[in-house]
Every structure is written in C-alpha cells, then in structure tokens.
Amino acid sequence: MRENILAIRLNDDEWNRIADMAGSVSLPMSSYVRSFILTQTPPKPKASGVTVEAVAALNRIGALLNQIARVGNSSNSFSAAEVGRVTAARERILEIATDLKGD
Predict the structure, then answer these.
(1) Which end of the chain is more exposed for a tag (fewer CB within 10 A), N or C?
(2) CA 58/CA 101 separation, integer angstroms
(3) How far is CA 93 from CA 59, 63, 64, in A?
(4) Cα–Cα distance between 56 and 65 in angstroms, integer?
(5) Residue 86 and residue 30: Cα distance in Å, rounded?
C-alpha cells in the first residue's frame, strides 16, 4: 500500500507537458511520473488506436494458423508450398502483434 506522498509544484506548461507524455503511453500522470523516477527512463509509448481486443485477435489468428500448419504437416494434406505460405502468414501476424504490443 502506498502511503507516502511526494509533492512538487509545476507551472501550467510543465503540467501539460507531463500530462501529454503520460497520455501518450496511456498512463495516469502519477503512474507515469513514478515509473520515470524509479527507472530513469520514460515508459514506452503504445501504438495509438490499438485495442487489447485487436492484439488478442491477432494472437488468436496466429495460433490458428500454427494449428493449421501442424495438421497439414502431419496429415500430408497440404503441399510443401501451402505449408510455407501458412507459416509465412503466421510469422507476419506474430510480427504485427509484437509491434502492436510495443515489445
């Protein structure tokens, strides 16, 4: 439980600048400042306009493509070229998901 308070005085420009930086990474100002002070690096900005649901959907699609590739490999119902295309699609989707997460 956080019981200690650190109070600082800011002018309007400083306040707005910190508020903008915190907003760019979707954090409350207190969380942003705490993270910055403790790590001495600002939190990474998140991709704008991306929702948790979109990232989750991309991850599910990647998992489904992986399952399709496995079934095709084990049942010999896919040609090598088809497996290659599915694998390439899966890798690209995972790249996009990683970029969206900001990792």
Answers:
(1) N
(2) 11
(3) 8, 10, 11
(4) 14
(5) 45
Largest CA distance in the chain: 69
Digitized pLDDT (tens) for each residue of the chain, 103 residues in all: 888 988 999 999 999 999 988 888 888 899 889 888 888 877 776 656 667 777 777 778 878 877 877 777 777 676 778 777 877 887 887 787 777 766 5
- State the residue for tokens 């599915």: 86
The reply to whether the predicted model has a pTM over 0.85 is: no
Phi-psi region of 51 (alpha: psi -120 to 50; beta: other; left: phi over 0): beta
- Helices 12-24 and 29-39 sit at what angle, rounded to 10 degrees? 90
